[in-house]
UniProtKB/TrEMBL annotation:
Residue ranges of domain Thioredoxin in the record: 168-310
Protein's recorded name: protein-disulfide reductase
Enzyme nomenclature, EC number: 1.8.1.8
Top EC group: oxidoreductase
Reactions catalysed according to its record: [protein]-dithiol + NADP(+) = [protein]-disulfide + NADPH + H(+); [protein]-dithiol + NAD(+) = [protein]-disulfide + NADH + H(+)
Keywords: NAD, Oxidoreductase, Repeat
UniProt gene name: Aste57867_9791
Pfam families for this protein: Thioredoxin_8 (PF13905)
Signal peptide: none
The species this protein was found in: Aphanomyces stellatus
Amino acid sequence: MRPVLLDYDMSTVTIFWANEGSEYDVQWKKSTDVEWTHLSLKSSLMKKKNIEADTMYHFRVKAAGADSYDEPLEWTHPSVNAQPDAPTVVMEIMPNDVQLLSATVQWSGSSGPYEVQYLLMDGKSDWVTATSAANSTAIKKKNLPNHAVPYAFRWRSASMSIWSRAAGPILPPAPALALSRALAPTLVSSSGSSISSASLGGKVIGLYFSAHWCGPCRQFTPMLAQFYHTMKQLGKPFEVVFVSADRSQSDFDGYFRDMPWLAVPYASDEREEIEARHEIRGIPTFKILNAQGTIIDADARQRPMNAAQFDQWYARCYSS
């Protein structure tokens, strides 16, 4: 196994390698040194401090008990002063293929164009350029492989030789296979697209029981839509699934077409099954589920619609 560069700053460097053992023997030295410094680690990631600028270092690693080391990583540490901050990254499962991911990457820059790179942290891949000509300070990279392996991301402007700090390791969300049973295998968007419910993995899921004929529903829906848009703008992992109590397909179509979220198909058997399973006695009803389909908040309509409340829901959904 060969070390791979993850991140660096003025006086530190972070490397990692393939996670293929429970313990590792790591060695490092300056290129001009004869003797190696030895370390024993249980982690497959190491942050080395007190690195000197404009100096070449060698790093090598092997699983404990292995006979020999692979070729070392050779790293010349740059002279770093004002290094840009790491980007913020939101990873989501692609709507129609749970084996693929999208990553929304945002950063603070003053002059483009910008180059953005990503790294699949499998210990074998190298940094890959997602774009070298971004004129805004955000991109969305689609169709990244989802192998339950962390990713890292970094950026720089065309006028810079120094990369930003790296964002990572970022573990992508796991497909929410349980939602096929808790909701329906396939959901729909207001534009008519079909979305796999398993693609909602890693998200807070709002289950919204409503109908156009219901006056209180028509009052609550715009408030929920505003909250939904705000959470999306903040990069929060949030999705709402509408379960209609409308009296006909045409009523459903007319009501749903202005909604920004997903819905259980009106004609599906699951729609009435979900309503019965959740023992809906009145609408509007708004519940919070996690990716396993477990109810986290059965009366979410009574909560404040703000980021602090969302963060509480997320913590309850995904606390270990």
